[in-house]
Amino acid sequence: MSGFLLILLGVWGALIPFVGPYFDFAFSPDTAWAWTDARGWLQVLPGAVAVVGGFLLLVSGNRATAMLGAWLGVVAGAWFVVGRASAGLLGIGDAGAPVAATEAKSVALELAYFYGLGALIVFVAAAAVGRISVRSVRDVEYVDRPVTEVVQPQPTFSDTDEVTEIQPTGTDTGRHRGWRGAFGRRTPVH
Fold first, then answer.
1. Model confidence over 92-111: pLDDT tens digits?
2. What is the chain written as a DSSP string?
3. 118 Cβ partners below 8 Å, 6+ apart?
4. Alpha-carbon distance 116 to 109, whole Å?
5. pLDDT digits over 21-60, tens only?
6. What dihedral do alpha carbons 33, 45, 6, 132 form, nearest 10°?
7. What is the spatial distance between Cα 188 and Cα 145, in angstroms, rounded to a whole number?
């Protein structure tokens, strides 16, 4: 679910500067589909990174890929929050001013385009990081389950064949210890 939400929020962040003027919900320049360097760096880039992170979370088959996707989401959200304030220092242009007649609409634009959007992306991605970094009960049960022995078919012998029986020399029973036995006192498995 986190991956799907990151994709939606990333698409919103990347496309709203271009379609917002249709709904009188925009920053200057108040023109639909007007490209500026600042829009590219401050909105399209972090939106695309959030989409990629969400996609990795959505389709990941292992913990490492999912963790990468979640961290990409955190970075994208953080850039939405701090990118606008850092734009002048980095020389990447200005995102413009909110096109709003009231202070309430100006705040709504700032939150929907940058600060609120970034905080929401960071929250969703950080929740995914937390979930991925913790082993669930299902993961522990999978590791602690006993390993079943594969029974090989035994050859048939006649009464005249001589059979030499080989006995195991170790005490290993073939049972998987799991992660709990990795630390502390080791007890033999019987």
1. 888 788 888 889 988 998 88
2. -HHHHHHHHHHHHHHHHHHGGGGT--BSS--TT---HHHIIIIIHHHHHHHHHHHHHHH-SSHHHHHHHHHHHHHHHHHHHHHHHHHHHHTS-----B--SSHHHHHHHHHHHTHHHHHHHHHHHHHHHHHHHS--HHHHHHHHSPPPPPPPPPPP--TTS--------S---S----SGGGSS------
3. 46, 77, 78, 79, 80, 81, 82
4. 9
5. 888 888 888 888 888 888 888 888 999 999 999 999 888 8
6. 170
7. 17
Residue 151, token pair as written in the block = 């029974």
Can you tell me which residue has the tokens 């919900």? Answer: 25
Total residue count of the chain as it appears in this document: 190
